[in-house]
Amino acid sequence: MNALNRLKPLTRLVKPLLLAATLAAAAPTATAQERVLNLYSARHYQTDEALYANFTKATGIRINRVEADDAGILARLKAEGAASPADVILLVDAARLWRGEQEGLFQPVKSAVLERRVPPQLRGGDTGAGPQWVAVSTRARVIVYDKSALKASDVDSYDKLASPALKGKICVRSGSHPYNLSLFGSMLERHGAARTEAWLKGVAGNLARAPKGGDTDQIRSVAAGECAVAISNSYYYARLLRSQKPEDREAVARTAVVFPDQAGAGTHVNISGAAVARNAKNRDAAVAFVEYLTSDEAQRMLADGNNEYPAVTGLNTDNPALVAMGRFKAETVPIAKVGAATAQVQQMLDRVGFK
Ligand code: FE
Questions:
Q1: How far, in Å, is the centroid of ligand 1 from the Cα of 15?
Q2: Is residue 182 predicted with pLDDT exceeding 50?
Q3: How many whole angstroms from 95 Cα to the centroid of ligand 1?
Q4: Which residues are within 8 A (CB) of 323 and not within 5 positions of it... i.e. 6 or more apart?
Q5: Which CATH superfamily is domain 3-137+270-314 in?
Q6: Is the pLDDT of residue 29 over 80?
Q7: Which of 118, 181, 245, 304 has the CB geometry, 3.0–4.6 Å to 95, for a possible disulfide?
C-alpha cells in the first residue's frame, strides 16, 4: 500500500465538506475558498479536535483534516506537488519538519504574532522572509531508569549513556527514529562531530538488545527488568503516570525519570510544529490558523492533549503528571539547527552500527 492510500480523510468531515461544496457553487469563488482550510496533521489527539472546533467557531473557517504520520504527509505533499490542496501542515518532530523544509514543501511566514509568541530557538529555517515552520508544543527526551538497579546520578546526563557502567543496560527504539535523530542532532550541535560519533558508538555498545518498539515499550522493558535504562519522550512517561491500569501503575512504581543535563546544557527538547504549505490556496486563513495555535487557549489544549509542554514561554502547565515530573531546564540549541544536523547524524549511525 502506498502512502497516499494510507491517508484517510475523516468520515465525520464529509458532511461539512459537502456543505462547503454547495456553498462554493452558490457563492463567489474567492469567498467560498476562504471558508475552508485543508489541514494535513500527524497529531491524532481528541483535544486537537476541540481546538479546531473553537477556531471554526471564532472565524467561520472550516477545517478539513487529513491524518497520516509525518512520513506519509511528506510523501503525499511531494506527490501532489503544485496541485496539493494542503494549506497547513502539522508534524510531530524537528527532523521531519526540517526534511519538509529541505524538500520545498513549505513557505516562509512573516507574522508579528508568531514572532512575539514563539521563541526564536523554536522556529524553522529563516532566510529573511520568516520561518518555514514554528513549534506549537514541546516534549523533553528524558531518561527512565530502574530504581532498584541504579541511582538518578548514574543517568543524569546524556554523556553517561555511553559510560562503561551502563554496559548491556540500555533499551532504546531505533537510532534512526526521528526522536533519536533529533536528540543526536542536538548532541552534534553541542559537542561537534568527533565527540558525538564516539558517544554514539558508546551508547550503541551499551544496548541491552537490538532496538525495537516505541518509547513506551522501552519503559515497559525497564519495568520488566530486561534493561535498566530507557530513553523516552516525556509524554509517554506522563501517560503512564496518569494511567489507572495495574500494569502501568506497576511500571511507574518500579521506575523513575530524569531530565538529563540539568547541570549542563539542559534537556533536549523536540517539538510538534506547524507550517504553511508551499502551494496553500488559502494562505491568509492558514497563517491565521497557525497564529491561533499559539494563543493561550490553543497552547493549553495542544500541550494537555498529549501531556506536552506549551511552546509559548511563560505558560505553565497544570497537567498533574507533568507537575509530578517537575520543572526542568531545557536546552537552548535552536531546533532548526537540530533538524539540520540529523542528516550527518544518520551517517554516523551507519558507521557505528547503531540501527
Ligand atoms: Fe510520539
A1: 31
A2: yes
A3: 13
A4: 317
A5: Periplasmic binding protein-like II (3.40.190.10)
A6: no
A7: 181
- The phi, psi pair for 234, rounded to 5°, reads -60, -35
- Residue 197 CA to ligand 1 centre (angstroms): 25
> Distance from the CA of 231 to the center of ligand 1, in angstroms?
12
* 138-267+326-352: CATH number: 3.40.190.10
The rounded Å distance from CA 288 to ligand 1 centre is 27
What does 31-78 look like in DSSP terms, one character per residue?
HHHHTEEEEEES---HHHHHHHHHHHHHH--EEEEEE--HHHHHHHHH
Ligand 1 center from residue 86 Cα (angstroms): 23
Residue 178 Cα, ligand 1 centroid: separation in angstroms? 10
pLDDT beyond 60 at 43 = yes
Other CB atoms within a 10 A radius of the CB of residue 156 amount to 18
Residue 30's pLDDT is what?
47
Instruction: Quote the ligand 1 centre to 234 CA distance (angstroms).
Output: 9
pLDDT in tens, 308-324: 999 999 898 889 999 99
